[in-house]
Design brief:
- The protein is an alpha+beta fold.
- The chain has one domain: Nuclear Transport Factor 2, Chain: A (Roll), CATH 3.10.450.
- The chain contains five helices and six strands; from the N terminus they run αααββααββββ.
- The protein has a six-stranded mixed beta sheet.
- Strand 3 and strand 4 form a beta hairpin.
- The termini are far apart.
Amino acid sequence: MRNLMTAAIVLSLAATPVFAQDSIQTVLDRHEKTIKAGDLNGVMADYADNAVLVAPAGIVKGEKDVVGTNVFDGKANIRKFFSVLTSKESNPAVKSMKVSYEFKGSDVVVMKWAQFPGTAKEVAGTDIWVIRGGKIISQVVLVNPPKK
């Protein structure tokens, strides 16, 4: 009986949002580290095979419609998006990025970010993530309009 009670307590503690948030924080930290390092394979390891990413159009070379947003459905398509962000051309902007996170519930995170913060080249935005089971299952990338 005592072992059963101990197991029940351990299982109930493991289901609390604190543990879920810790797991999400680990994914976010690893994601930020690998993208700043230009490690495309490391970045992609955080995504579920059936993940979906929504991002502004025009980031990936060869896109025909560069107005509005694009939906990158599945890991292979998401890889196209991150191959641009981990490239040598994009790496200085990505390395300069400062981020802050707001945890919304057990699996949703809002990330505020800025590249080249405080400079004339600043680009900022918000990403909305859903992370479950240690994998990113969806991400929406929103870029703020340029400052005038």
